[in-house]
Each structure stands twice: as C-alpha cells, then as structure tokens.
Amino acid sequence: MWTARPVWAILLTVLATFVAAFSSAVALVVPASLPLWQRVVAGCATALVAVGLVVLWRRHLVRRPWSGVALSWSWRALGHSLLGIGVAAAAILAAQTACVAVDACAWVPLSSAGIPLSTILVSTFISAVLVQGFPEELLWRGNLTDLLGRRWGPGVVLLVTSVAFGMLHLVSNGSQDGVGEHVLYVIMATALGFACGAARLRTGSTWAAVGVHGGFHLAKGLVPAQPEHLAVLLAAWTVTLVVGGLALLLVRRPTRSRSHATADRP
C-alpha cells in the first residue's frame, strides 16, 4: 500500500502527530484550578486519539497486525517502561546537574509555583506520558518503525526516524530564542528520538521508548532547573541523551552458560 512507502509513511506520521497534539491542547492549557479528574480525562483523550489513528491506519490502509507496534500488555512491558524512564531520568538529571555546576542553570523548588503537590504530580504525568510520551512513541517508534522496518535495516530506521522526529520540532515552542537556540532545540529533539529508538531496538518493545520519552519530561517537570543560558542546557541534554541511547545499544545482555543452552535444546 502507498501509505507504507517511506516518504508517505513519514509524512502521515507527522500529520497524525499534529492531529494528536491538537487534541491535547485542552490538556496543555487548562487552568490548574480544574479538578484533577478533568485533567486526567483530557490526557486520556489525547492517547486514545493516537491509538485510534494507528488502528485505522494499520487495519484499513496497510492491513498489518497490531502486534507490529510492539505494545503488548505484560509484566515485561512494565520492566521495559521502567528501564526507559531510568535511562532518560539519569540523562536529564546529569545534564541539569552539570549546568547548575557551571552556573548555566538554577534549581527551582516545586513549591515555588504555589500549586498543590498533588496537582503538580498529576499534571506532570498527564503532560509527560499521556500527552507526549505514549501517543508520540506509538506513532514514531511503534507504527512508523514497523512500517519502515519492512524496507530498511534497523540502523537506517533508527537514523531516519530520529532525524524526522527532530525536524518535526522546528515548529515546537520550547522557550528558545534566536536561530541558534532553535537549531539546538531540533538537535536535542533528534537526540531524544535517538534514545527512544535505541530503547525500542534494544528491547524490541515500544514501551521502552515510551519510558524514555515520558521519563525525559517527568525528570524535567519534577526536578526543574531554570536555565540562565538555554543553549547550554539544550546542548547538555543532547549529549546525555545520546550517551544514554548508545549505552542502550552497546551494553550487552547477559548470556546463559553453554550447559544451560544445551539443556534447553530438544
């Protein structure tokens, strides 16, 4: 089908990302005074829009099984998600700590906003996971990675999806100012896409990519740092995300002994 061809698949993924992002507008701008359950409903709606788009795409346009998006429900999925969260949180905290050490950032207490802690926690989770991590990774590291993997090798798919995901952020507003910061923001988003793709490739599960993406925003939201020089913080995030992605790809899994492997043979 034409929607499975690389160029069209990437363009449609970009379009689907904007559609899901539009549906998340309510979750992103609702005032903090709204009841928490309304914020949860708004975030869940965003995730459901992404799921609906992928289901329609795979069922009616490319006729591929849902299993290709690698989002099975199991205890292993929980482990993969936690692995991704841990890698992303370590990367972001390392970057922000380094920036604070060179006076490029300053730590910001969560209580400084005057918002109840429960509201902060729920709102951060909604934005990090339901609005951004889950729907975007379902589209990019789930559906698109599966479609491109039918034509290209894993390395090429990882490179293409990372660059395309980064270029998507040309229209994102991350408080950047000037051409230099906009370029660094795109490069940082590419590094985030690389770390997410590495998690998907390493584990075979899109839940690991959701964990990396969600963990990135959770760490930023729950351990915030106010940048004095945004360019330095963006560069630091880029470096640590790339290091985290490379660690996922290069660290070898433990192997069983030869006697165990022989005993498993029929």
Automatic annotation (TrEMBL):
The keyword Membrane applies. This is CAAX prenyl protease 2/Lysostaphin resistance protein A-like domain-containing protein. The chain crosses the membrane at residues 37-57, 77-95, 107-131, 152-171, 229-251. InterPro entries: Rce1/LyrA-like_dom (IPR003675). Keywords: Membrane, Transmembrane, Transmembrane helix. It comes from Promicromonospora umidemergens. It holds the Pfam family Rce1-like. Residues 122-217 form the CAAX prenyl protease 2/Lysostaphin resistance protein A-like domain. It comes from the Bacteria.
